[in-house]
Amino acid sequence: MKQLMKIGLVAASLIVGGCIAQNPASVRADANASSQVNADKPDTDEVSFGDPALQKIVADSMGIRSGTITYGDIRHFKGQPYISAIPQAVENLTSLKGLESLNELPNGIYYLGLNIQAGVSLAPIAGLTVSQLSIQQDGMHTNDFEVLNTLKFHDMPAGTAFNQVEIVGNTGNANRAGLVNDDLNKLAPLFNRAYEANKTVKDFGFNLSNQRITDFSFFNSGPIKNTDVFATDEYQVFSDKVQIDPEGFTENTEVKVPTQVKGMDGEPVQTSTRIWNARTSQWDAIKKQGTTTLATGLVSTDKWIIVANQLAHGYPETIKYANGNSLRVAGTQYYPISWEKTPTPQPEPEPTPTPTPKPDPDLPPKPEPGLKKGTVVYALKKVYLYQHPTFKKGERTVGYVRKQRVNRPMFVVTGYARSKAGLLRYQVRDVNHQYRHTDGRTGYITAKSSYVRPVYYQTKHQTVTVINPQGVNLYKNKNLTQRTRHLRQGQLLKVKRIVKHRLTTRYQLGNGNYVTANRKLVKLGTVTYPKYVMAKGALNRYQTVNLDKKNRHYQRKQRAIFKVSYTDYSRNTSNRLTGVKRYKVAGGYISGNPRLVTNLYYQGRPHSRQVRVIARSGIRGYQHQNLTGRSYKISKGKVLKIRRIIVRNGLVNRYQLTNGHYITANKTFVKTK
């Protein structure tokens, strides 16, 4: 999941006073939805809200200091409000009344995030137009969740880096009335409309965490593709019993438990890392044979085999599919036991996840906090540090905006607590030394896995890429002593294994040396960075990453080309400002805004599979992708057929022609048709 969001809607967007001011974007609409639900209300009438906390949040998002919202305020609002009534801002909302008035917003809503008490009707949000959505509520299965099918979505512009639609529960591993498999089909209009609006987003996905879903084949049965589905902390109770013959059963008997979780292709999936040992009343490391769990430590009075994923060991591996979809799923799984030779079908009450199997062995254990004290976590979204476990807006001490991965704020977990509503909180210490005014502060932050996660990888990956702008060092020892080499941003590393060092982890490479497994410094898989960029017009160069102190101007006619040392982000010492992309070049920094600069080399195969030579003196074709060996001249104006693009990590790209030869992918030499 990569897990999260708040991205600009269009290139012309500007955040002003808690809203997004911009030109209206196209909308994926429901033809039956109405946008003038309160046409009979005069502009001077006040909007009546059922929850004062929600009214204040909406007023703040529209820049209304008085807190009183009129229909005129809504009808004449020029931007798109950013409405964030999520756990970081408010406890569970007791009513959504009043939100129906937002159907009259001229440009819709940029972000709608609602943390809602179980049983509260979703009807007031019917027909709203949004760019980004986060609905967080327990018990959706028994509520009017199909209202979500009436929502409309702005088409996200091409090049948007990330967006995730969240339909999640509030209680991890214990949402007894969460959405189930059949509910996915009932929400098909929502999923399909959101997908259509986000088809050009680079990393789009759905977050369905804290529900009861066990079968994800819905997502490969329709038009959805190139989409990530993230579903952790699922409460998964199965009906098919595991048969155990009581005769000859001992404490060492190994019981095979085939998984009942299904992936997008209907295949069996088992990502659990631990199993409940009833004899010791502890979680043990799981043993698996493919997707079948090998259970031990059972007692003859057990009614359930319980397996789970410990997120302190990292999120589950991503399962990738042929249509570009991907799945990350984990949860607490309850498999009923039948202590008979021949199973006798009979209804079995669902388990209630409350503290431990004692004194009532029928109740499965409540999962303990997954992170050990001393674990370092970082924030995926905007979070606040609070004075007490029950979050109140007036008790916030520090706010941390959503940052790019390399600059995400970090905290050390020093303890645990629960709010009055029973929500888990982490007691933490701020360890962001770059934030001069917050470093060392203590307090409480949310423990929701969609907001914070361990900063160190806990599982092995085949390859990782260095993403830290300043690079990382390679060491001889796993405690990161005796440096052997410096690695630049963009270098791809092949991993041999992962090793633990106290509460951190390291990756050991094939040469035996070690590198950090810190997610802020390395990232799994291949990450590409531009080696050269070209100015689209006039451009300034500055002395600092924040673009202070201009030290050179490049005129439009120059079409200046820059060699990029590394990609960085501004405002890396601020916990209040997000920061934007910059390129470090010889002599200073330039903007990374795609409206101002472009990669000098094409990054993908053209849709037409053709390019035209535009260089005045033509180009040359070569036998090898490093453009060596025998060559021949190709004149200006010649149209060439492309077989594929050769992406060379850390180097410059090439095109392979249909005749097997290679040419440059430099935009000053060739142009896609």
From TrEMBL:
Residues 338-372 are annotated as: Disordered. Residues 344-358 have a biased composition (Pro residues). Residues 456-522, 601-670 form the DUF5776 domain. Residues 1-21 form the signal peptide. It holds the Pfam family DUF5776. It comes from the Bacteria. This is DUF5776 domain-containing protein. Keywords: Signal. It comes from Levilactobacillus brevis. The keyword Transport does not apply. InterPro entries: DUF5776. The keyword NADP does not apply. Residues 359-371 have a biased composition (Basic and acidic residues).
